[in-house]
Amino acid sequence: MIGRSKKSKYLETTLKYDATLCTGCGMCSTVCPHGVFVQKDGIAQLARPTACMECGACALNCAVRAISVDAGTGCATAQMIASLKGSKEPTCGSGCC
Amino acid sequence: MITPTTSSITLIDRMQHILARAGLRRSRFRIRPGLYALGDPNSNSQVFVTANYGLSFDTLRSALSNIDCYILVLDTKGINVWCAAGKGTFGTEELIRRIGEVKLKDHVTHDILILPQLGASGVAAHEIERRTGFKVEYGPVRANDILQYLQNHAATPNMRRVTFNFMDRLILIPVELTHVFLPTIILMALLYFLSGPIPALTVPLVVIAGLLVFPLLIPWIPTPNFSTKGFLLGSMVAVPLFLLALISFPPAIWWKKLGVALPYLLIVPSLVAFITLNYTGATPFTSKSGVKREIFAFFPIMFWMFLAGVFIGTLFRFIR
After folding, report:
1. Is residue A74 within 8 Å of B283, Cβ to Cβ?
2. Which residues of B are less than 8 Å from A7 in CB distance?
3. In the predicted model, is pLDDT for residue A75 greater than 60?
C-alpha cells in the first residue's frame, strides 16, 4: 500500500537485528503485525524489514536483546505537537487513541 | 472481587459502540479495571487480558461466546489495546500490578495468560514470567479469531497480521469528521461573510477530500507518501474551484481575475495534504522515522504554499 515504492519515506527503518544472539524462541515473528520476521533454520530471519512500523513489540519481547528499534508512534500530529512542546517522545493526547 | 459478565451484546451496548465509532463520549466508554468471570469459570479456565476501553472489552467478550473464562481488564485510561501498548499503559508494570491486585494466583491453578498480540508493544513476556510466574501467550490480532486460535493455541500467519482494508478505513471516517465538525461550520460562516460563497464552499470540500475521500482511496492514489497523495487529491478539488472563481469574477483586468482565483490552487492542495499527512496516525503501518522524514520533506512546502495563497487572496480581496 505504502512503503513499497522507491521514493517512499517509509522504506528505511531503525530496526536492527543481530542474528548471532538469536536463540530461536520465535517471539519476534509471533508479535510482529507485519510479518517482518520469520523463523528459518532454527533462528529468526529478517524477511520484510521495509514493512517495519517501529512499534517495538519484537525488541521488547526479545529476551536476549538481539533486536533494537527506535520505537514510537507513526503519527504526524503527535510528532508535530511534540516538537512544538519541545518534548522528545511523541505521544498522542489523552483524548486521542 | 470478581465481576460477572456475559458474552452477549445488548442494545444499550450497541448504542454505545455507535457513539464511540462516531467519536461521541468515546473517552467515557470505560470498563472498571479488574477481574471478570465470563460464564462459570473454574481454576483451570483460561485468563484473557484486555484494555478498559468499552469497545475492546465488548469485542473480546462477544468473541468468547460459550466459553467459561476469566477476563483481566487492565487500566489503560479508556484507550484500546494497541494504542495503550504504545503509550505503555497496556504494559508490563500495569499487568504485574493487576495480577497482584486481583490475586490471580488464588483463582487459577495454571500459569497461562492470553494477551492480544497487539499488546506486545507494551508488554515484555519474559519479564512477566520472571516477576509473576505467569507465562504470556500472545493470541491473534483480532478477537474474532480467538475460537480458532484456542483449538491448538496456534495462530495462522493471517491471524498475526494487521489489515487496513476498505472496511477498516470506512469505519474510521465518522470519528475523524466529528473532530472537525464545529471548526468547519465556524470557518465556513467566517469565510462566507469575509470573502463570499466560493471561499466558504472550499472549507467543506477540503474536509471531505481529506477525511472522507482520501481514507477510502489511499491504495489507489498513485504516489508513495501521504503528503503527495494529499497534494494530488487537493489539486483535483482546487482546479474546479480555480476555474469557478475565474468565471464568476466579473469582467476585469486578467491579472486581477488571476489574483482572485490563484489562492485556490495554493491553499486547497496544501490544506488537503496537511490533513492527509496527519492521517498517518490513523493507519496501522506508518513508522515513527518514516513520518518524521515525511514531515521534514513536505511540511515546509505545505506551509509556504498556504501562506502564499492567504497573502495573495487577502491582497486581491482589497484591490479588486
Report:
1. yes
2. 224-225
3. yes
Q: Which residues contact A20 (CB under 8 A, 6 or more apart)?
A: A66
Helix (H) or strand (E) holding B114: strand B112-115
Residues B27, B48: Cα–Cα separation, whole Å: 23
B45 Rama class: left (phi>0) / alpha (psi -120 to 50) / beta:
beta
The answer to whether the Cβ–Cβ distance between A60 and B226 falls below 8 Å is: no
Q: Compare all CA atoms of chain A with the CA of B172 and give the residue at the minimum distance.
A: A97
**pLDDT 10s digits, B128-151:** 999 999 999 999 999 999 999 999
- Report yes or no: B123 at the A interface, CB cutoff 8 Å: yes
B292/A34 Cβ within 8 A? no
Please check whether residue B291 is in contact with residue A75, taking contact to mean a CB–CB distance below 8 angstroms.
yes
**Tens digit of each residue's pLDDT (9 = 90 or more) over A10-63:** 999 999 999 999 999 999 999 999 999 999 999 999 999 999 999 999 999 999
Please check whether residue B277 touches A, CB under 8 A: yes
The per-residue pLDDT for A3 is: 46
C-alpha distance from B209 to closest chain A C-alpha (Å)? 18
